[in-house]
Automatic annotation (TrEMBL):
Name of the featured protein: DnaJ homolog subfamily C member 16
Span list, region Disordered: 561-587
Annotated gene: Dnajc16
Database matches in CDD domains: DnaJ, TRX_DnaJ
Signal peptide: 1-25
Domain J intervals: 29-93
Residues in Thioredoxin domain copies: 118-246
Alphabetic keyword roster: Autophagy, Endoplasmic reticulum, Glycoprotein, Membrane, Signal, Transmembrane, Transmembrane helix
Protein localization: Endoplasmic reticulum membrane
Length: 775
């Protein structure tokens, strides 16, 4: 019984000490320490801090607790003076930089610290789950979401990243740790980025990467995530990183293709790099360098153990027993620079490549390259001048360009960069620098320029005569450079250059094909490697596309069958017309010919409905009136209903028809105000009563007293009829009577387009003083 009481009291003591330690850790309140409210401004916080700091400074206050009090005051001010830390404290009760996931970590640390004080260290039981000890190698590689998005993803376009997803209490993570440590030490020295994501604290980032289990290893190149699915051994991880890189980074060069490879500088506008080594494949370090500088140089690899490369090794004097790297620029017979050493290191290669990133006289093919070769002047001591050759494009090197190249080779300086531009591809750029003179047409010119700002402002001076490459031209250019070195104001002309056209950008079709191939590759990998959670977006997209396609086919099939029934109506269902009566709607007119898809109410405009449907029409409302005759009534009303059906949803539109046989004089009076209408004949004209206005449509605004006019097109059959009867002078009277229903319907073929313009308000309006009486 006594032993039981001792054990209970001992447990109670442990719990009590734990609670007191936690409360003491959570007892710190910066607002209470400084004596300010939670809504205090920065000025109030600073004022309170200065007052308390003077009062409790250990040099002035001899109280034994002054030093501890001063430390608390400083810590409180550090938290409240920083808006981010203050916000974290207000939301989470802690001033840590991370929001949410660090609190469990800190509580875990406090609990572990308590355990260590009472000799309950996990190492005593030999369980390697203490994250502070186990993940010490991973601490400097830990990634947060913002760091991944802002730094890792953009940097993945220059180098691949290898990322491990881990968590606490992960037995497999402990198993792969020795291999991971060895691979990290090797690949990081080659230039591969390394990252570690703790799935327990960085759930958002782990979910964003698509990692749903630990441990997971993935690679990132060009912002694209690829998962590692093989056994975690050194060689597999190395091959995985190599597989992340594009396959065409390094070209295999032999005696058969080395001239073609080195001659590509003119088309690609890049220096070309050749590595001679004894391995059958290019080293990973060389491939990583090629990936980082692929926009600036082209890379080739020569396997010196291959039969048939002796010609190259003799021509360029290569030592086959040590790796040798050569850089070729405009001249393929002699390298512009070389380096040879056993065990080439990453830093040595990068320095060598950086010094030879551009051609001796590179072609300006884009605005980005122009910014790099001819940077903006930042100070008087950092002046950069560009000597620009403006020449025509040629398949072979022209004499002016060769002379310019030799001049650039002999006068290379840190402050002067030599470039050239194809005047045919960059016409606006060329016309700004070259004077508009016949002497320069079709010839080369040389300009010296200095950029003043990124908006395109430059100062420049162009040689007075065309550049032919003669010794005299070189002498004049050399004199200009010497004079410029003495007097920067020598560049007297000023202009604003337009942006350069990107000559090497792929066309839209190629970019689309590249994107499509990458997407198909991702889908193929997802089918074989991804789990169902990762496959859900793809499956959803496929089923949605199939559903839309199937639905479209079904709707089209039903609509086609409806159109067939409508185009061949039975004769028995034709309803005879009711003459002389007001037609309340087109549905009553001929129900068999009405489209099944809708109902259009078309009323007749008579002396009874004239006042309500026009004269006293509410503001903002319009009445669309079709002009027809008794003989064309059925055909025109059917076509009119089809054309205006899509506009019946507007409550501001009303639809009517007007009989030309009854109200011709009213129509003729309105058309006199339409300036673009055909001349209205007078009443003594013998064809006055025979003029055909059927198919005209008027949009009448009764409140504002204006109308818009639609005049139908003449059908082809009518034009032929008019042409055949033109000599007899009888076409006007017979044009509307001798035509079938199809030509009549063709008059309103463009009415829907006219209605769209009516709703847009872009039609011409014809105003009248008052509405005439409708007799």
């Amino acid at each position: 019984m006594e032993v039981k009481k001792v054990s209970i009291s001992w447990q109670f003591l442990i719990v009590l000490v734990l609670i007191l330690q936690i409360l003491s850790a959570l007892d710190f309140d910066p607002y209470r320490v400084l004596g300010v409210s939670r809504t205090a401004s920065q000025a109030d916080i600073k004022k309170a801090y200065k007052k308390l700091a003077r009062e409790w400074h250990p040099d002035k206050n001899k109280d034994p607790g002054a030093e501890d009090k001063f430390i608390q005051i400083s810590k409180a001010y550090e938290i409240l003076s920083n808006e981010e830390k203050r916000s974290n404290y207000d939301h989470y009760g802690d001033a840590g930089e991370s929001q949410g996931y660090q609190k469990p970590q800190q509580r875990e640390y406090r609990f572990r610290h308590f355990h260590e004080n009472f000799y309950f260290d996990e190492s005593f039981f030999h369980f390697p789950f203490n994250s502070e000890r186990r993940d010490s190698i991973d601490e400097k590689y830990l990634l947060h979401f913002s760091h991944y998005v802002n730094e890792v993803v953009p940097d993945s376009f220059r180098k691949p990243y290898l990322i491990k997803i881990t968590s606490d209490w992960c037995f497999s993570c402990i198993h792969i740790e020795p291999v991971w440590k060895e691979v990290v030490q090797e690949l990081e020295g080659l230039g591969v980025g390394i990252g570690v994501v703790h799935a327990g604290y960085e759930r958002r980032l782990a979910h964003h990467l698509g990692a749903h289990s630990t441990p997971s290893i993935l690679g990132i190149v060009n912002g694209k995530v690829s998962f590692f699915h093989n056994a975690v051994v050194r060689e597999n991880l190395r091959q995985f990183v190599e597989s992340l890189l594009p396959g065409n980074l390094v070209e295999k060069v032999t005696n058969k293709n080395y001239i073609r490879f080195l001659s590509g500088w003119q088309l690609e506008n890049k220096p070309h790099v050749l590595l001679f080594d004894q391995g059958p494949a290019a080293p990973l370090l060389y491939k990583l360098t090629a990936f980082a500088y692929r926009d600036y140089l082209s890379f080739g690899y020569v396997y010196v153990g291959l039969r048939g490369v002796e010609e190259m090794t003799r021509q360029y004097n290569i030592n086959v027993y040590a790796p040798t790297m050569l850089i070729f620029k405009e001249h393929i017979n002699k390298p512009a620079d070389s380096i040879q050493a056993r065990g080439l290191k990453k830093q040595v290669i990068e320095d060598f490549i950086t010094q030879n990133k551009y051609l001796l006289a590179a072609r300006l093919t884009s605005q980005k390259l122009f910014h790099e070769l001819c940077p903006v002047k930042r100070s008087h001591r950092q002046r950069k001048y560009c000597v620009v050759l403006l020449t025509t494009e040629a398949s072979k090197l022209s004499k002016p360009f060769e002379a310019f190249l030799s001049f650039a080779l002999a006068n290379t300086q840190d402050t002067v960069r030599f470039v050239h531009v194809y005047s045919g591809r960059q016409q606006e750029f060329t016309s700004t620098l070259v004077p508009d003179s016949k002497a320069f047409q079709g010839k080369s010119a040389v300009s010296i320029l200095e950029r003043r700002n990124t908006a395109g402002r430059v100062v420049f001076k162009t040689l007075g005569d065309p550049w032919t490459g003669s010794e005299n031209d070189k002498f004049i250019l050399l004199g200009y450079l010497d004079q410029l070195r003495k007097d920067p104001a020598f560049l007297s002309s000023e202009a604003v250059l337009p942006e350069l056209t990107d000559e090497l950008a792929p066309v839209f079709l190629l970019r689309w094909l590249y994107s499509a191939s990458e997407y198909l590759t991702d889908c193929w990998d997802s089918v074989f490697h991804s789990n169902w959670r990762e496959m859900m977006p793809l499956l959803s997209l496929i089923f949605s596309a199939l559903f839309i396609l199937f639905g479209t086919v079904i709707v089209q099939a039903f609509s086609d069958s409806n159109e067939e029934r409508e185009s061949h109506p039975p004769d028995k269902e034709e309803v005879p017309e009711k003459m002389g009566k007001t037609e309340p709607s087109f549905m009553r007119e001929s129900s068999s010919k009405i489209p099944r898809k809708g109902f259009v109410e078309v009323t007749e405009l008579t002396d009874v409905t004239y006042t309500s449907n026009l004269v006293r029409l509410r503001p903002g409302h319009m009445n669309v009136v079709l002009i027809l005759s008794n003989s064309t009534k059925t055909s025109l009303l059917q076509k009119f209903a089809l054309e205006v059906y899509t506009f019946t949803g507007s409550s501001c539109l009303h639809f009517s028809f007007l009989s030309l046989d009854k109200h011709r004089e009213w129509l003729e009076y309105l058309l006199e105000f339409a300036q673009d209408a055909a001349p209205i004949p007078n009443q003594y004209d013998k064809h006055f009563m025979e003029r055909d206005y059927t198919g005209y449509v008027l949009a009448l605004n009764g409140h504002k007293k204006y109308f818009c006019l639609f005049k139908p097109q003449k059908p082809v059959e009518e034009e032929e009829t008019v042409g055949s009867w033109g000599d007899l002078g009888e076409s006007r009277g017979k044009s509307s009577c001798g035509l079938g229903p199809k030509p009549l319907k063709g008059k309103l073929s463009k009415l829907s387009l006219w209605m769209e313009r009516l709703l847009e308000g872009s039609l011409q309006r014809f105003y009248i003083p008052s509405w005439p009486e409708l007799d």
